[in-house]
Each structure stands twice: as C-alpha cells, then as structure tokens.
Amino acid sequence: MSATQTQPNIKSRDQRFSNLQRTLVLIKPDAVQRGLVGQIVARFEARGLALAGLKLLQMDEQRAAKLYEPHVGRPFYDGLVKYMTSGPIVALCLEGVDTITVVRKMMGATKPAEAEPGTIRGDFAQRVDFNIVHGSDAPESAARELPIFFGNDELVSHDPSYTFFL
Ligand code: RTP
Ligand code: MG
C-alpha cells in the first residue's frame, strides 16, 4: 500500500516572485586561489537562488576602477584594486526573491572578525583585505555593477524546478 500524498500549500508563481531581483556576486581572487568556488556556489544554490550568469575572468585595472568608483579616495582603494586584479575571479548573477538582502546576509560582515559563523566570510575568511566575496549592496548598485560583468545576452532568466518550494 502506498502512502497518501497531499498537496502542500504552495504559493502561486506570482506570489513567490513578488520581489524578484538580480544581484552581482564576485568570488574574489583569494577564494579562487584557495579552491573555494564550488563550496561558495553550492551555498547559493542550496539557498534556492537561481544562476542567471556565471563566468571566470581576470579584471584589469580599468574594470576594477569602474566597479569600485564609489570607493575612490578611500584609504584602502589602491590595495583593493591590486587585490581584485591579482588573479582570476568568478562573477555570478544570482536571481531570486529579495536576492540582494539574502546574499548580503549569507556573505556576512565586511570585516570577517565581525562576520557570524555560518556566513561565507564567517566560515572562510580572516582579513578584511582578503574577504572572499563581493555582493551588490542595493538595487541601484546591482543595476550599476551587473553590466560591468555581463552583457544582456550572457544572462538567462529561468525558473529552476526547485523554486516551486521556495
Ligand atoms: P563588497 O563591496 O566586496 O561586497 O564588500 P562590502 O560591501 O561588505 O564592503 P565595502 O565597504 O563595499 O568595501 C569594499 C571592499 O573593500 C575592501 N575593504 N578593505 N582595509 C580596509 O579597511 C577595507 N575596507 C574595505 C574589502 O575587500 C571590501 O569587501
Ligand atoms: Mg560594497
């Protein structure tokens, strides 16, 4: 005899996707060098964020200057550009409900010493100048940052079957 299966109370697609957002995540050169790419991508996938774009690249100074334009003049700016251009990075465009906030929470505080265990920085990083991941901090930032890494033809919106339960 088979068990009775009941229909869970699942929200409609429109309700699930009421605040669908895209955000930029960069897996920084230290994380690529340390072989952490798979573990970091796996966390976002497990959380149910959909991959809309993914590429490996090495930034030149021009691209880094574009990305970090809001930080020009800060004491850490030169070191940041040097770090971010020092080796390959992985750029991700993640899509999902409230994705910008969700990703920032999953990343943890900028200073790894202040990042909670369970967050990416809290689990993998020790230093603010090698802090593993970047994530857009607001919808306006995501809108500014995503085109620095992805053309429209490189981004694919899709509805992974697992999002039915998210
Ligand atoms: P991110 O932009 O990388 O997602 O990091 P965030 O928003 O948490 O931090 P933000 O203030 O935007 O700083 C950008 C990156 O600059 C480096 N940083 N170094 N030495 C320092 O005091 C310092 N402060 C910031 C970090 O790599 C930080 O992620
Ligand atoms: Mg930032």
Describe the structure.
The chain is of the alpha+beta class and 166 residues long. It has one domain: 2-Layer Sandwich (Alpha-Beta Plaits). Helix content is 36%, strand content 17%. It has eight helices and four strands. It has helices at residues 13-16, 29-33, 37-47, 61-67, 77-84, 99-107, 120-124, 139-149, and strands spanning 20-27, 50-57, 89-97, 133-135. It has a four-stranded antiparallel sheet with strand order 2-3-1-4, sandwiched between helices. The chain is globular and about 60 Å long. The structure holds ribavirin triphosphate and magnesium ion (MG). Ribavirin triphosphate binds next to β4.
Notable traits:
166 residues; alpha+beta; Alpha-Beta Plaits; 4-stranded antiparallel beta sheet; 17% strand; binds ribavirin triphosphate; binds magnesium ion
The CATH topology label is: Alpha-Beta Plaits
According to DSSP, the number of beta strands is: 4
CATH class division: Alpha Beta
Question: For the largest beta sheet, what order do the strands appear in spatially?
Answer: 2-3-1-4
What overall form do the CA principal axes indicate?
globular
In CATH, the architecture is 2-Layer Sandwich
Q: What's the helical proportion of residues?
A: 25-40%
Main sheet summary? 4 strands, antiparallel
How many H/I helices?
Answer: 8
Terminal Cα span: 30 Å
Average of pLDDT: 92
Radius of gyration: 17 Å
Ligands, deduplicated = ribavirin triphosphate, magnesium ion
State the domain count: 1
Uncertain runs with pLDDT below 50, 5 residues or more? Answer: none
